[in-house]
Amino acid sequence: MTSARPATPTELDYFVEGMDCPSCVRRIEGALDRLPGAHGARTNLTRQSLTLTLDETRTSRSTLEATLRDLGHPAHALGGPGAAPPAPRAWHRAAQGRLVLTTGALLGAAVLLGQLLPTLAPWLYGAATLLGAAPLARKALAAARAGDPFSINTLVTLAAAGALLIGEQAEAAVVVFLFAVGELLEGVAVGRARSGIQTLAALTPKTALLLRGDRVLEVPADALKVGQTVQVQPGGRVPADGTILDGQSSLDDSPVTGESVPVGKGPGDTVYAGSINAGGVLRVRVDRAARDNTIARIIHLVEQAEASRAPVARFIDRFSRVYTPLVVLVAAATALIPPLLGAPLTEWMYKGVALLLIGCPCALVLSVPAAITSAVSAGARRGLLIKGGAALEALGSVRTAAFDKTGTLTAGHPQVTDVTGIGLDDSGVIRLAAAAEQGSSHPLGRALLAAHAALGTPLPAAQDARALPGQAALARVDGTDVAVGSPRYAREHADLSAAEARVAQLEDQGKTVVVLLVDGAVRGLVALRDEPRPDAPAAIEDLRALGVTPVMLTGDNARTGQAVARTLGLEVHAQLLPEDKLRLIRDLQRQGGVVMIGDGINDAPALAAADVGVAMGGGTDVALETAHVALLRPQVRATADLIRLSRATMRVIRQNVAFAVGLKLVFLITTLLGLTGLWPAVLSDTGATALVTANALRLLRFRGGEQD
């Protein structure tokens, strides 16, 4: 008895061999669109994966897999979305590698035996051609059925057949062999570009030391649950994102954030899965499950980035769709029209076949995604998470860098320096202010909570807590309405006149002042100071050297903003609400591209509106999700590195496109003039493909700093 097929659609996840470029993706998606019951196909070039929903009452899995196999992309079922792909096979064990070895052996035998038995050589050349062209013909037929009649497999198959027809068996064999070698080299090179991010998955240890009572148990790291406690031995890797409960050590975060110097950490500090414990024994509370840890998020963001195509990539794709049919038309006209006018048939058919090979678009189509993949991988390894090709392209043309102040240009660790009670003692002011800020992710809120913790008294409960971004934190505490806000907010909701002189005095010292309101009356002032990041002055100079104008946008008061701006040497816009920042970003965009760098919820609208939004490391989840780029390293100089990486990438893309198109134009002219034959024509694509990929791989060596 046969088992019934599932009555409901099933989500399937496959590893797809040989899916190396956008042309492959287009063929696969075109074929799946024609299968009844196949929906929602999503491909991922980084993982070489395909996810889709299949109604098996209309199309079976075996039919789906046979369709992919006919396209030249054997598919292997994975355990589910996000499952690790199978380990790559050695090149000589893969189907393409075996084809290269076999056709190469036949070609070599034909060359050697041709010296001894000239009559046998054409047959050996023909056998090598047929052996190499057979899989190409199958792929070409499948691609044509999928709606891609001008695939590279079609062009090479037609060229090989044409060469055989005019008696050029040796050149036909060389063409097929060189094409197979080019495909193999392309796969190897693209695999290297992928490896930069795939190696991150191997950073997390397979096992962890779980503390359960007095026992230490070795368990799979991916089985850890939030809230459990693990022990990290000296020299070991941290198995999960978490918080140190006990112990002091230096953590090497370089595999995750790109930070080259080990960081001293102790109780209360955050640690990342994959970081190396360079000091003492640590007890760590697990804060994120394996699928949600920082490394998993990095991999997910990079995969999203590589699926998000840059405008230049979309243009190249559209161009190639016109270019290839046009060259095929020129090739057909070259082969047919001159003989009709009395020219030698063999000579012009030979030229037409060569033009078919020149029409292959692989080098052109791969020139952009290879560079984007390499750049995104290089950035991720330095803690620069670029979420898409469009953001990477836009970074290179920005003219203004707009920075938030608190937590971006400053260290984000403000400390309470002065407390002024008005009808309350100092501890009472801190007590109520901290209560209203419970759960806050804003640096000022965290500073108030830290000041209260130092008092050692219980924190009162707060009800109806809410935040007005850029204005105040509100809550009901001990039966009273409490607000902790800026002086501007206090002036709008209470009488601040009696405290204005003290506010001005504190602000003139470069401090940030928050006002405590209780039932609508001013009851205290708290002053806080946040020092600029050590690398901020150098970062500002780096940006100016790149031709980018830095400006500071802050919700803080004008006096404090001016004090920080004078220290760093940049223009400042102060006392801004989120909507004011949004308006300023749009004003700045009239002068050119704008990159906005921030870390908090107040920045989310401006981050989204800027040409490129950059979320600083340690920022809120809202900012990280809204931004186009996330910085795992809390360093301002990373902004200049982003711009350098973008400009280097666009330079490589321009080189690749010029090389791919220029080489084809050269061989187009030399072929029509009869100066070159078939194998140089195939090298114009396979050789160019290998070279543009190798050029793109140079981006993996990007180190930032002074590199441009």
Describe this structure in words.
The protein is elongated, with a radius of gyration of 32 Å. The chain contains 24 helices and 26 strands. The strands form five sheets. Strands 14-26-25-24-15-22-23 form a seven-stranded mixed beta sheet, sandwiched between helices. Strands 6-5-7-13-8-11 form a six-stranded antiparallel beta sheet, with no helix packed on it. The chain has 708 residues and is α+β, with helices and mostly antiparallel strands. The protein folds into five domains: 78 residues, Alpha-Beta Plaits (2-Layer Sandwich), CATH 3.30.70; 230 residues, no CATH class; 86 residues, Calcium-transporting ATPase, cytoplasmic transduction domain A (Distorted Sandwich); 118 residues, HAD superfamily/HAD-like (Rossmann fold), CATH 3.40.50.1000; 115 residues, Calcium-transporting ATPase, cytoplasmic domain N. The model has no long low-confidence stretch (mean pLDDT 83).
